[in-house]
C-alpha cells in the first residue's frame, strides 16, 4: 500500500512538471492531490507495525540507563560486550533525551587514535549535552589531530 501511494505521488508530481497544465485550477488540484497522498504516506509510515523499538516502551528510562551504566563500569567482559552496552546506553540517552553526566567522561577513556571501532564510540558520543561537550572535543582533538597521526585518524 505504501509503495503504491509513493508511486502514484511520484507519477502525479512528474505530470505536473513535464506537462504544462493549461489551467491554473488543474495544476492546483494536482498539487493538492500530491500533498494529500504524501500526508497519507507519512501517516501510514507512522502506523507501520514493522517498526518496533523496545526502548520506546521503557517505564523508568533514567533508572534503566543508570543501572546499565553502573553494570558497564563494573563489568570485566570483552571489549565487544562493553561496546554493545555503550551503544544501548547511548541510544537510550538519545531517544529519551536523558542526562547521564558520568557517561561522557567514561567515553573519553576509550576515545584514542589506536582504538578499534572509534567511529562507533563517536556515534555514541553524539548525544552530548552542551556543558559536557568541551572536554569531549578537547579529548578528540588531542588524540586525533597532531603531526604524527595517521591520515585515517585525522579523517575521523
From TrEMBL:
Keywords: Nucleus, Protein transport, Ribosome biogenesis, Transport. GO terms for biological process: protein transport; ribosomal large subunit biogenesis; ribosomal large subunit export from nucleus. GO terms for cellular component: nucleolus. The keyword Transport applies. It comes from the Eukaryota. InterPro entries: Sda1, SDA1_N. Residues 22-156 form the SDA1 N-terminal domain. It is found in: Nucleus, Nucleolus. Its main location: nucleus. Pfam families: SDA1_HEAT. The keyword Nucleus applies. Required for 60S pre-ribosomal subunits export to the cytoplasm. PANTHER family: HSDA/SDA1-RELATED, PROTEIN SDA1 HOMOLOG. Belongs to the SDA1 family. This is Protein SDA1.
